[in-house]
Amino acid sequence: MGQKKLIKFAAIKQYENVLENPQGMPGKWNSFFEKLATGPYPISLDDLAVIKNNATINHPAIKPLTLELACGRGEYTVGLARLFPAQNYIGLDIKGNRIWKGASIANKEGLQNVAFVRTQIDQITNYFDTNEVAEIWITFPDPQLRLSKAKKRLTHPKFLRLYQQFLQQGGIVHLKTDSPNLYQFTMAVIELYALTIITATDNLYETAFMQSAQWNEKLAIKTYYEGLNIASSNRIHYIQFKIDKDLPIAKDDILKEMIAAFEVTETHDAKRERTLPHKE
Predict the structure, then answer these.
(1) CA-CA-CA-CA torsion sign (88, 200, 162, 263)
(2) d(Cα 253, Cα 34) in Å, to the nearest integer?
(3) For residue 189, which of 226, 142, 155, 144 has the smallest C-alpha distance?
(4) Which is catalytic among the residues 142, 244, 246, 252?
(5) pLDDT tens digits along 43-86
(6) What is the DSSP string of 49-78?
(7) pLDDT computed for residue 14 by the predictor
């Protein structure tokens, strides 16, 4: 491991706004952010209060909580926290050297509504309680293009079932990607399981969409990855939807047959998968 990575790993171990596989946290995040803002430090996770949200009425003392999954450097986590200081934001990623960037910026700017969790996304239900999360952002995840890896896509029903366990009723999922395959796959999932779609566009920065009522300041945040323009295209795909229906496992085989019909093996996406590292 390089010296720079070692320095970053050592740094985040001292950051109060970075937690690694934190145990016993469901229901405690509002209390955690209160301590993050006021101290004392170090924060004792065992001493944090658990506050439960009602299924239909939010607890008045709880600030809305938004997650960015596979957050990389945390540009969306930090960007949203700047825009909405009265809400709390958590970025999750397994790469500690990437988390270091967003956590360092948050510390430098004194953003007390930002935290990062270093973990695998498939462990996410260990950290959040029922109705604890208001929104999820999935920004430029690895599209996992091979059909054999479809279950690793962060909008696969396997993951949506996990998100359902802690998303509030009416909670929203956002996907922002430069992968047409991941966009089509996610639209197929939404259609097959009859989920509620709020917004969908295969060209986010098209003038007509940017001038429409569907555009908002959240969509203008750009990640480091987006700036690289790896797919050699300015076409960014965006979907906003709700996981508001049951997701029967029996339909997963139907989904596999559906996506096999439109997925390809040699696109900008496939070339990127073979030659470049991804956010994980």
Answers:
(1) negative
(2) 45
(3) 155
(4) 142
(5) 999 999 999 877 556 676 789 999 999 999 999 999 999 999 99
(6) PP-PPPSSS--TTPPPEEEEET-TT-HHHH
(7) 93
Tokens of residue 196, six digits: 């509620």
Structure token digits, residue 138:
């999935």
CA distances from 188 to 133, 164, 193, 254 (A): 25, 18, 9, 11
Task: Note the CATH number of domain 3-275.
Answer: 3.40.50.150
- Segments of the chain with pLDDT less than 50: 231, 265-271, 273-276, 278-280
DSSP string, 4-26: HHHHHHHHHTT-TTEEES-SS-T
154 — phi, psi (to 5°)?
-75, -5
DSSP string, 256-268: HHHHHHH--SSSH
Alpha carbons 72 and 113: distance in angstroms, whole number: 18
Of 106, 101, 142, nearest to 33 by C-alpha is 106
Active-site residue, 269 included = no
String of b and e for 185-204 (b: at least 16 CB within 10 Å)? bbbbbbebbebeeebbbeeb
The encoded tokens of residue 91 equal: 């970025």
Q: Are 142 and 69 in contact (CB under 8 A)?
A: no
Q: Is 240 helix (H, G, I), strand (E, B) or coil?
A: strand
Q: Where are the alpha helices (DSSP H) in 39-194?
A: 75-83, 96-109, 157-164, 180-192
Which amino acid type is present at position 117?
V
The Cα 69–Cα 53 span in angstroms is 22
Neighbours of 59 (CB within 10 A): 12
123 Cβ partners below 8 Å, 6+ apart? 21
Q: Give, in degrees to the nearest 5, the angle at Cα 201 between 178 and 237.
A: 10
CA distance 44 to 35: 9
The C-alpha atoms of residue 87 and residue 54 are separated, in whole angstroms, by 18
